Each structure stands twice: as structure tokens, then as C-alpha cells.
Hints:
mainly alpha, P1 Nuclease, two-stranded parallel sheet, 4 strands
Amino acid sequence: xxxxxxxARALLLAFSVLTAVPSAWGWGCKGHEIVALIAESHLNTRAxxxxxxxxxxxxxxxxxxxxxxxxxLDAFVDSSTWADDERTVMPETGPWHFIDIPRGAREGSIxxxxxxxxxxxxxxxxxxxxxxxxxxxxxxxxxxxxRFVIHFVGDIHQPLHDTTNNDFGGNCVPVAFFDxxxxxxxxxxxxxxxxxxxxxxxxxxxxxxxxxxxxQAADALETTFHTQLPTWQSQTQNFSSWAWESHQLAETIVxxxxxxxxxxETPRPVESCADDDHIxxxxxxxxxxLAAQYQDAAAPVVREQLAKxxxxxxxxxxxxxx
Length: 322
């Protein structure tokens, strides 16, 4: 049976998790932790108390293998990366981390890009919030729902979690990043690392952090964007708008600032980076070399998206428990 691009991307994400390759993870460990730290600092008293009680009443399983191992995290921040690990146990949650809006799509109804059989990040956020609001839900269900919400608000602000060019959100775009040349990691699937998605998840953040801890980076972002915080806090919580906003950033910055322009592909079903006439091999031949100029264009966008995600997450939880 031919899978839709949405289902196939979920399989790629599940494969990446099972093989402990973080290149398909929105923001990576430090990015998600930064979002959670910013959110936590803006929770009202009741929301903070409710969040920590819910997480304590439904703790993370001690048997779950955790990829992110930052020490001394509190339960809220530690929960920010749980959803990626949980995919090893519940691979059906893979499609919840993204929505495949094709490059070149006109802004409008988002439902056409959200596969009804699997869901996507916008529907997953809505369904997990419903569980959080349900006083009759089990303690574990509410705790897991909160962990999903913390994570998915981060993911939806990563532009490549709201975009596809038949390339699994940039996972099929091999790139050189400064002194690292792309290396093939799976010849059958034609996967490479570094790739465009991994650069946006991890590499850009690592460079601008420059040795900072996630807490130091979060504090710095709050200082940088302090004038914008009230506006972000007061905005309507519209998941579709957030996805379109991120999608536009993917078009104008993620792809738009590449040194070699990538054409918009005609949307078609793909199951790996070997499909769409060997898309990753075709992208490899473009010899995308990302260095200081691309970092300088991308880093401000990444920084703002992390800060915005943290503030919007806090506003969302504050609205649940005013």
C-alpha cells in the first residue's frame, strides 16, 4: 500500500528514534529544555502548582530509555523531551510531532495536510489539552498529556516541523555545516548527516549557546526579547496560526537563505529519502555548504522561535489554571 507523505515521515521519525539518531527531533535536547525553562518562569502560581502536581502524580516510567541526559532538571523541564523517547514505546505518536505543509502551499485551512488516520501536531495539541482539562482522566493520562503539550508547543515553533518538500522536513537535504561534510548513514534509505533538519534542531542552537547551559541560554533569550514578551503572552492561542507562521519562516529563512536555492518539488508520496527520484542524492549534488552567513541569518530566527514557544506555552497553561 502506498503511504501518504505524512505516514511515511512518521515512519522515518520512528526509525530515527529507535536507532538513537536525534536528527528528526524538534529542537533537540537543549532547545526543548530552553522552551520549558522560559515557560516555567512565566507560569502563574496556580498553573505552576497544578503542573508539578500532575507530573508528580503520573511520573515518567523508570524503564523508559531517555536520550537527553542533562543533569538536575526539575520535572517540568525534564518532561520537555519525554515525547521523543515515548515514541520508542508508542510509535503511533510519531505523526503528532509535525504537520506536512508542502512548500508553496497557500495559507488557508490546515486540515488537508493533517492525515485523519494519524493526526498531526495541531490536532494532537488540541486532544492532549482536552485530556488535561478532563478531571475524570487518569493521573497518568493527564501527566502524559501535559508532557506532550510541553513538547509539542516547542515542536510547532520549529519551522521544519510544519513544512515538507518531499524531504521529510529537511531530513533528506544533506548539507555541510562549517567543517562537517555530509556522511551517508543509511545507504538503503539514502539518509545523510548533517542534514538541514538536524542543523535547525541542534547545530544552530549549539553554536549560539557557545557553551552556555540551557538555563543561561533561557535567561539570555528573556533579556533579548523582553519587549516582545507581553505581546506573545496576550496573543490568541491558535495552533493553526502557529503552524502557518513557522511554515512561512521555513520558506523565507530555512530554504530561502540557503546558498544554493532548492526548487519546490511537486508533492508526491515518499517513504524514504531514496524516493521522489532519489531526493537526498539530488540534494547532495547541490553541495549546500552552510557556514557563517547562514548561521547569522538563521540564529536570530531560532532564538526568537524558542523564546516565543516558551512564552506561548506559559500562556496556554496559565489559561488552563488562571
